[in-house]
Amino acid sequence: MIPHDDRKPTIEGVLAAARRIAEIVPPTPLLPLEIHGTQCFIKAENLQPVGAFKIRGGWNRLSQIPAEDMARGVVGASSGNHAQGVAWAAKRLGMPATIVMPNDAPAVKADNVRALGATIVPYERLSEDRDAIAASLCEQTGATFVHAYGDSWVIEGQGTAGVEVAAQRAERGLPAPTRFVAPCGGGGLTAGLALACPEAEIIPVEPEGWDDVTRSLIAGEILSVGSNPPSTSCDALQTLATRPINFDILQRRASPGVTVTDRDIREAQRFAFSRLKLVLEPGGAAALAAALAGKVPIDAGTTLILSGGNVDAQGFAAVIGSAD
Amino acid sequence: MIPHDDRKPTIEGVLAAARRIAEIVPPTPLLPLEIHGTQCFIKAENLQPVGAFKIRGGWNRLSQIPAEDMARGVVGASSGNHAQGVAWAAKRLGMPATIVMPNDAPAVKADNVRALGATIVPYERLSEDRDAIAASLCEQTGATFVHAYGDSWVIEGQGTAGVEVAAQRAERGLPAPTRFVAPCGGGGLTAGLALACPEAEIIPVEPEGWDDVTRSLIAGEILSVGSNPPSTSCDALQTLATRPINFDILQRRASPGVTVTDRDIREAQRFAFSRLKLVLEPGGAAALAAALAGKVPIDAGTTLILSGGNVDAQGFAAVIGSAD
């Protein structure tokens, strides 16, 4: 059973999280970008210390663990970015961390998690339930389970990216953000952005065949990815289903999303390399891929979230070295 | 003969340039970075619209050309980054631009210059004098020659990177910058930083065998690189000699610099890829390379300038795909 809390994520919680995050990391850059002649913005979350936005939710969750529970540590389950966010926060707070991680996770993510002092428990992505393994570990040790997206503090933490965008726009004399296009796995980031910026449209972007959130939004109930989903380069977005805490928010606020192909993703990674001088992992390039492919509307109020850049060198070299 | 002006670059000129630059591009990110356990900062000039800091000097120079001279256009000579800065500014100002560019320049740089609407005149890097070719073109057409570094407005423009760093530090409650480590070709950036931040130490970093500025600083007079310099990956830093307008400033302000090897550069490019999620061209990685190799002192007052990211995909793929 997956532990849960009855605490609801709120905009007040996002704002409190934003104050906590501002104490530990500077805002990531919000950069102007013209796509097909239209000006929009990108938020470079790949430039976070752990190479992904997940440091936000990880820090917000771990820093709120009661003092008496800290010594027993935390357990997370993640293909690698949430893992690094949790491991980074745990190291800084002096807590032990264990990460349940699929055995096909990119080496760079596993290496970074180990370098941050966390212990990795591997599992088989499609045949084992990572959350169940994590919950079992917590029962044994009394550690706190930190869900990758179905957690109120995590959602509020991810939403701080939206608070930053709003503040950065205001500093430049621009009106409030009107649209976020964001990579979507379980819906932690998209739900957080929806809370942070209640007036903005939220468009989730999922890999082809892993569009459970979009299908759920259309169906009006939580649906899972099929039992035999296609392969995708987006390791960070391979979540099997969103959770009620995320879906309750997204159902009220998000547009049904769009899907991108691995080819769209590679195009976006090459564009980021050659034009933006940014390294993006496949999942981190999903929103940019959707914009470049003309699959989402963009305008001067739109921010594309570049969510992460943790990609193995060989794979990245192959992508930028080819043109397909 | 190379045209020159008697106008001296000044800190007031740098501050005026900073106001002009602020109107057209947002500040590039100043990001914290820990190297060998010591905290310092990096200034990500590779994230400029043309992928390099040269947009600063290009814009500052071209925007000051008298109205009656604008229609006759500009001529620049550059391996590609100054070229793009000039071409970008010329396009925005509606001026024709011609760039004298070595025939071994990275394809990405030539492509970008053409995409910005400029005309390229190729030359042989080691046997022809690019400045003489450019000067001759100007005599024929009446175009304004924009030297890549030996120009007061260009120097003042490049110095605006230092103004931004000082402002970004102040916004975060940090004291004024005390040291800049910067890639050095002809000395436009280093001279500009020296003017912008009169209290800061300036350390130029040059490729091995192309350390004419360091040798000049030690000798107390301008020396050229030897007649048969070694090959270097740093196409952007292959200038044969600095010029009096730069040297006069550097002699008063800069420490004799340090040199980095192509191997140091590759290490820095890989570090930027895997840890910073930033794409750096060889020359743009020189200051980071010096810091990683322990060749320069760093501390919390130190900023390493990451000066550019215009690198061909095949070459970059080869660097990140290997470990040497």
Low-confidence stretches of chain A: none
Radius of gyration of chain A: 18 Å
Mean pLDDT of chain A: 95
Largest interface: A-B, 29 and 28 residues
Q: Secondary-structure element order of chain A, as H and E?
A: HEEHHEHEHEHEHEHEHHEHHEH
General form of chain A: globular
Question: How far do the termini of chain A sit from each other?
Answer: 43 Å
Main β sheet profile of chain A: 6 strands, mixed
Beta strand count of chain A: 10
By helix and strand content of chain A, what is the structural category? alpha/beta
Multimeric state of these chains? Answer: homodimer
Report helical residue fraction of chain A: 40-55%
Strand content of chain A: 15-25%
Main-sheet strand order of chain A equals 1-2-10-7-8-9
- Tally of helical runs of chain A: 13
Give a concise summary.
Chain A is of the alpha/beta class. Chain A has helices at about 10-25, 55-60, 65-70, 80-95, 105-115, 130-140, 150-170, 190-195, 210-220, 245-255, 260-275, 285-290, 315-320, and strands at about 30-35, 40-45, 75, 95-100, 120-125, 145, 180-185, 200-205, 260, 300-305. In chain A, the strands form two sheets. The first copy, chain A, has a six-stranded mixed sheet with strand order 1-2-10-7-8-9, with helices on both faces. A four-stranded parallel sheet of chain A has the order 5-4-3-6, sandwiched between helices.
